[in-house]
Design brief:
alpha/beta, about 550 residues, disordered C terminus, Rossmann fold, single chain, 16 helices
Length: about 550
């Protein structure tokens, strides 16, 4: 399998699989520049990653026969993949990659609690692509080579499911980089975009598919995608997909379609927390898995400095201007508001005050969103006003300052918002405008500041003492907030509370297993964090899951 490939036309940037061997394609300077950019291009490269800062992130792996972590990008990782990793300027594996690469290489299923910014996408792409480059496509099913446009069906070998179009697009962009000059053709499908162009892309080749659940189910029902050849299944941001109502589509994809059984594929699941609903999915979808808990980048005061300012609603605009005028040039500022109307109003206000800005919210078209993200990412509009849809999952380098113009009603949302800065081990600043309209989260906020060793203003403590029983946010799944929800391996009987650290931290445990013996062979990985763009829409425009495969396949 392997046709034409996701984002390239014809054979540009692709190799082939011939006579049981991987034949790398010739270097293509145009494609290479498109994928990796010029040296120092922050929109294409991870040059801003502070790799040294990752060393202190706690990682705990529990389960039977956990392999030793790697410390460098070296063989047995496939040599062609190593070349692409170097082109992308990745220097050292992040903690999640150190563990996920050997775990997936050993053919094991993986359940990882890890948040955005931890390097999850590379964590699952690296081992999956390395194995595909080494062992070639799965040939258990002979693809239907029907004549004509309508007769062709895509048979991907790896599937990555994620909840939003922005997140699957990010995963696809990374897959394009690391699949460069290989036989593997990445493709992406999501709702809210022209289905015809996505079908044409599938026609060109689809070996590694990134998808939202709704659009994937749609294309499966049209007979345009078969999951019969899936060797690797990745479920990224599983908790977010459940929050958005995608569980029926996910179960339809994994359990009711033609996907190989759990014993005949390798499954990787990523989630920021591990509540009961996620445990149930893990029990149903994974076999003899290793549980990986990864602390978050930005979990300490060295990474994100949090400032809480008391600002009445009528004063917010003038205080914001003071802040923006005082920021040194070079960084990006992300401002969160609660409503679409406020996003539009605030963008107009900033423009009137000669501050180049853009905005993003749920009513914007896909094209408008992508344009806004591009101008922000490149610094043409260094200020972006966003509703909560942008709070999760977007990995934009060089965001140095996050402003919570409107505080959310849930502390989890606050954690995800401020996590847009201090990325990749770098430092960042988060400022929040607080007044008595935000009393509902004051206690959670104080607890969070203390956990992260941040200064707690005396006036904030005073507001908390005013009484009224307003502690706690709106609550998450299962009646509890996500950050204090279970993040430990429940199979061990270990405590299920958050294990410290910024976003609640992640703990481990050890112990008995569901399912049968571990399969052997195969690679896998991890994915990059939550995202909250979009919303489920009936037949499902937004949502995705990632396909994995069996380990005993060669």
């Amino acid at each position: 399998m392997g046709g034409g490939g996701g984002a390239f036309s014809g054979r540009d940037g692709y190799g082939s699989w011939q006579n049981g061997k991987h034949v790398a394609g010739p270097a293509n300077p145009r494609v290479e520049k498109d994928l990796f950019g010029d040296l120092g291009d922050v929109s294409k490269q991870q040059t801003g990653i502070n790799f040294d800062a990752y060393a202190d992130i706690p990682v705990e792996a529990t389960g039977t026969d956990v392999p030793e972590p790697i410390t460098e990008f070296l063989p047995p990782i496939d040599p062609h993949l190593l070349d692409n990793i170097r082109l992308a300027h990745y220097k050292t594996p992040t903690p999640v990659q150190k563990y996920s690469v050997p775990i997936v290489t050993g053919g094991r299923d993986l359940m990882a609690c890890a948040q955005t910014g931890s390097g999850k996408t590379g964590g699952f792409l690296f081992p999956i692509l390395s194995a595909l480059f080494t062992h070639g496509p799965r040939q258990n099913v002979v693809p239907d080579q029907g004549r004509g446009y309508r007769g062709r069906k895509a048979y991907p070998t790896a599937l990555v499911l994620a909840p939003t179009r922005e997140l699957v697009s990010q995963i696809h962009d990374e897959a394009r980089k690391f699949a460069y000059r290989s036989w593997v053709h990445p493709a992406v499908v999501y709702g809210g975009a022209d289905v015809g162009s996505q079908l044409r892309q599938l026609e060109q080749g689809c070996d590694l598919l990134s998808a939202t659940p709704g659009r994937l189910v749609d294309l499966m029902e049209r007979g345009r995608i078969s999951l019969a050849n899936i060797r690797y299944l990745v479920l990224d941001e599983a908790d977010r997909m459940l929050d958005m109502g995608f569980e029926p589509q996910i179960r339809r994809i994994v359990q009711q379609a033609d996907m190989p059984d759990v014993m005949d594929r390798q499954t990787l699941m990523f989630s920021a927390t591990f509540p009961r609903e996620i445990q149930m999915l893990a029990r149903d979808f994974l076999k003899d898995y290793i549980f990986l808990s990864v602390g978050r980048v930005g979990s300490t005061s060295e990474n994100i400095t949090q400032k809480i300012e008391y600002v009445e609603d009528e004063d917010k605009r003038s205080v914001l201007l003071d802040i923006l005028y005082s920021i040194p040039p070079g960084g990006l500022t992300l401002i969160f508001v609660e409503t679409k109307r406020m996003a539009d109003l605030l963008e107009g206000f900033l423009a009137q005050n000669n501050l180049p800005s853009t905005s993003i919210h749920g009513d914007r078209s896909q094209r408008e969103r992508e344009y806004a993200l591009e101008t922000f990412r490149t610094g043409r509009t260094p200020v972006m006003v966003a509703t909560a849809v942008a709070a999760r999952g977007l990995d934009i380098p060089n965001v140095t300052h996050v402003v919570n113009y409107d505080l959310p009603s849930d502390i989890d949302d606050y954690v995800h918002r401020i996590g847009r800065t201090g990325r990749a081990g770098n430092t960042g600043l988060a400022t929040a405008f607080f007044n008595r309209g935000n009393k509902n989260i004051v206690r959670d906020l104080i607890e969070l500041l203390k956990e992260a060793k941040q200064e707690v203003p005396a006036w904030l403590e005073a507001v908390a003492r005013e009484g009224g029983g307003f502690g706690g946010g709106r609550g998450g799944r299962g009646g509890g907030r996500g950050r204090s929800g279970p993040t430990r391996d429940f199979r061990s009987g270990a405590p299920s509370g958050g294990a410290g650290g910024f976003g609640g931290g992640f703990g481990g445990g050890g112990g008995s297993r569901f399912g049968g013996p571990a399969a052997s062979g195969g690679w896998g990985g991890s994915s990059d964090g939550p995202s909250a763009y979009g919303r489920p829409s009936g037949g499902g425009s937004y949502g995705a899951s990632s396909g994995g495969g069996s380990s005993a396949w060669y």
